[in-house]
Amino acid sequence: xxxxxxxxxxxxxxxxxxxxxxxxxxxxxxxxxxxxxxxxxxxxxxxxxxxxxxxxxxxxxxxxxxxxxxxxxxxxxxxxxxxxxxxxxxxxxxxxxxxxxxxxxxxxxxxxxxxxxxxxxxxxxxxxxxxxxxxxxxxxxxxxxxxxxxxxxxxxxxxxxxxxxxxxxxxxxxxxxxxxxxxxxxxxxxxxxxxxxxxxxxxxxxxxxxxxxxxxxxxxxxxxxxxxxxxxxxxxxxxxxxxxxxxxxxxxxxxxxxxxxxxxxxxxxxxxxxxxxxxxxxxxxxxxxxxxxxxxxxxxxxxxxxxxxxxxxxxxxxxxxxxxxxxxxxxxxxxxxxxxxxxxxxxxxxxxxxxxxxxxxxxxxxxxxxxxxxxxxxxxxxxxxxxxxxxxxxxxxxxxxxxxxxxxxxxxxxxxxxxxxxxxxxxxxxxxxxxxxxxxxxxxxxxxxxxxxx
Amino acid sequence: xxxxxxxxxxxxxxxxxxxxxxxxxxxxxxxxxxxxxxxxxxxxxxxxxxxxxxxxxxxxxxxxxxxxxxxxxxxxxxxxxxxxxxxxxxxxxxxxxxxxxxxxxxxxxxxxxxxxxxxxxxxxxxxxxxxxxxxxxxxxxxxxxxxxxxxxxxxxxxxxxxxxxxxxxxxxxxxxxxxxxxxxxxxxxxxxxxxxxxxxxxxxxxxxxxxxxxxxxxxxxxxxxxxxxxxxxxxxxxxxxxxxxxxxxxxxxxxxxxxxxxxxxxxxxxxxxxxxxxxxxxxxxxxxxxxxxxxxxxxxxxxxxxxxxxxxxxxxxxxxxxxxxxxxxxxxxxxxxxxxxxxxxxxxxxxxxxxxxxxxxxxxxxxxxxxxxxxxxxxxxxxxxxxxxxxxxxxxxxxxxxxxxxxxxxxxxxxxxxxxxxxxxxxxxxxxxxxxxxxxxxxxxxxxxxxxxxxxxxxxxxxxxxxxxxxxxxxxxxxxxxxxxxxxxxxxxxxxxxxxxxxxxxxxxxxxxxxxxxxxxxxxxxxxxxxxxxxxxxxxxxxxxxxxxxxxxxxxxxxxxxxx
Lengths: 454, 564
Fold this sequence. Notes:
The complex is a heterodimer. By secondary structure, chain A is of the alpha+beta class. Chain A has 4 domains: 130 residues, no CATH class; 64 residues; 111 residues, Immunoglobulin-like; 93 residues, Cytochrome c-like domain (Cytochrome Bc1 Complex, Chain D, domain 2), CATH 1.10.760. Chain A is 39% helix and 18% strand. Chain A is built from 13 helices and 15 strands. Chain A has a 5-stranded mixed sheet with strand order 6-5-4-8-11, with no helix packed on it. A 5-stranded mixed sheet of chain A has the order 7-13-12-9-10. The radius of gyration of chain A is 29 Å and the shape is extended. Chain A starts with a helix and ends in an 8-residue tail after the last helix. Chain B is mostly helical. Chain B has a single domain, classed as Cytochrome C Oxidase, Chain A (Up-down Bundle). In chain B, 63% of the residues lie in helices and 4% in strands. Chain B has a two-stranded antiparallel ribbon with strand order 1-8. In chain B, strands 2-3 form a two-stranded antiparallel ribbon. The longest helix of chain B is centred in the first third of the chain and has 36 residues. The termini of chain B are close together. The chains are: A alpha+beta, B mainly alpha. At the A-B interface, strand 1, helix 8, helix 9, strand 10 and strand 12 of A face helix 3, helix 5, helix 8, helix 9 and helix 10 of B. Chain A: It is found in: Cell membrane; Membrane.
């Protein structure tokens, strides 16, 4: 109901969002229901066959509820349904034609618009979209109890705003029409002030903003005070990525997992400029500063996947600085933590090769943001063809790029800045363990023969 | 109480309406303009300068919106986008909005409104214009060297240690523009204090002058802090003295406090003159005494003073302590009240008025609507709990565009159309003016309303690229920008055309009772033949419509009371 009134208020400006499908359904009435039945038949999805195929591949076959079977009929494949149920996939947003969701870290799109679709789709998914989690018109999906308090205040201010805007707008239009200039009619010059009215229209807004201020402050205190039993994840932000460190010392770049229904405290600092940890679904945010720790906390809620944004402008790739947050069931979380701790180890327990570790390190640690491997120089020199090259430094001295040069460049980069480049690199001391330095060296060797553009 | 005839020099019973020999052609040659001490000529030169800046800033805005039309990079790379949004913000704020109404319109109108020959310090006035030119030159240098990619806020340590663009030349430009602003403020403050005509007590000061007075206080007291802050930034960058960069022992949040200690009052430096213009226009076009004169006047000054105490609300999520957030949030709400009071007073002025929807009035009414939305959405950002999620998102972008563009720019257009006949002696086409105004209004709402929605749904600001779920809002916004651009282009055409083929303007085309309308259009070099006497500036019945001159003339026989 509330959303429909909002939609009506905004109808003049033609906004869609989640209000649009409601409009469509209201307008078409019963016809909409018939359409979705028809589509199901047209699509010709054999749900039983899909489920059978799925179970044939899986080690532990599962049964699907009637609701889930309906979803499959409308375009999700059984693996998707399973992922949603386990919280490995979650919806980022959706509208009448398109659902954007994260699944195992990959952003996927089911859409009737071929421009967006990343997978084959059923031709019409709108009825399906409205059945999944509701997405309030104004705000991102809501994920925690604190977020509810925030949204309650948001709604209170929003309704206050609607009422005042409508009041002012209507009075303005009415006065302009009713008191439009007419020949022979003079303005009433006696109305110059009216103390009672002026007091009333000063006091009422004062009371309203007083309520807003106090309500906002008390919720803010809750948002800033983590419970004592919160688990702590340490966050290092850098240009342009995130590194997450767990109490056990396990590190995970660009992605972190937390167990469901657990209070989590993020203890954050930056390696370079100011960043900001922005988690819209939890209504949480804090700047991440280079010279101190800041904290945010949230109750992780049900299994789902969320996008973390950097919301403080931090330079060239600011708009690519996303991280993925996954809320896991306790079992999945424990399994992920083991996997994250053993990322340099193969499934059979043997160590990965130095080259494999090097390539993974290059992608995980943010090297790739500045050092290209295609030969083009960017903010930093390219890795292509670097091995064995004579490097010229700002002070005129030179050095051949060998093992010791690379090692020193990682641990103490400003001691040997290549001519033409500034002091921009993250100092990976003591962040980078020995295996990964060796990996980077092996990786550079493998790129020895890639031609350089500069 | 003495009764004195207030009419200026009269020809055949009517005051002179149009002057062939006026301040524009009273002397000729380039140096008669470049070295002029005439406040009206300086105002016109400012108008040309800020219009060019506005055009430049508008081009950057167009670049931003076209790039954001679709997800993925269209025709810029991320580094270029960062420069474009920075230059858009910096040019619009420092070169256009801050000097816009005070320096361009204020310079022309303020002494005329006082019945004075000029401002208190004409040479200082010219020097502040040349400081503006010098500041703008540094910006041009920045544009043609390595540009700027720090955002208009120059946040450290990105600006001092990480950006490899022309931060120093840009900050030095802003430093000079700051002095231009200080000199203008000082000049206006002294002029209003010392050069009011007989009869103009503080409670008979037109509300435009109250607004300019509040603005001048802020320009004078806040701008030096910006100057010092930017000098510290330059010292850190060039001499390596650690002030803001933690690597050198500094504190980056200190910079934010310094910066917003200026830049929050600066928000009101931008909006107070706008409110001042609107107060004049609403009363004039309603042919009615302004409602709640004292409340509007005092609210201008209280906004000016309170604006110094709220800077911390820009740092609610920047590690500020909860005690500090409590205090800054509370004071922030106190400033909402005087703003609301002004809106109610304007509405009450329309009540039982004789309202005519001339072009200036249309812009003023649009201002009320847009400023209401801009002001109310400020509540979301002043409330601590909701600010956390909205901070640094497009919600903030939409909010300050509603205040600065929907507010200040629309009021600037209102004032420009209002005083255009006085400045140029020409009437523009009312029909074209109204059409342009409505187009701009529709375009503006379409451009910025969707940004509220995408912001509250999580879209961060200053993003060169975005995820496809925000595409619809970005596309609406881009279309709106183009419509707004069409409106502004039509407005420009209409005004420029009036210079060449517009009708001659009468002395008082709108029926205002303030003094600047008593001299002919355009005014002579010396403004007034006889020093005018001031009465109640909103005694609209002092003037009446005269069919023959197509303007308003003083009522014959109605004598104005003069205060002792």
